[in-house]
Design a protein that fits this description.
mainly alpha; 0% strand; single chain; 83% helix
């Protein structure tokens, strides 16, 4: 049976990642990918790093989805103002 550290990102780590802005999450994700590509880690370390990368990628997607929605809202407001 795997220990809790390898099953998912810890609650503390998830809470920390949730505070990251897009650029910080992206930069850390780039570093995670580089470390995974270099290899040399045991399986548990690799899995933990992979899970952190997944959490960082999800945080980036949250930011991008929010930005996308803001752009769509701004376009809608602009079009509504032009029609008025």
């Amino acid at each position: 049976m795997a220990d809790a550290g390898t099953e998912a990102v810890s609650t503390e780590e998830a809470a920390e990642i949730a505070t990251f802005g897009y650029e910080r999450a992206r930069d850390e994700l780039v570093n995670v990918v580089k470390m995974l590509e270099q290899g040399g880690m045991d399986l548990d370390e690799s899995l933990a790093l992979w899970e952190r990368g997944e959490a960082l990628a999800n945080r980036c997607e949250e930011h991008l989805a929010g930005a996308r929605q803001r752009v769509e809202d701004a376009i809608s407001r602009s079009e509504a103002a032009e029609e008025a």
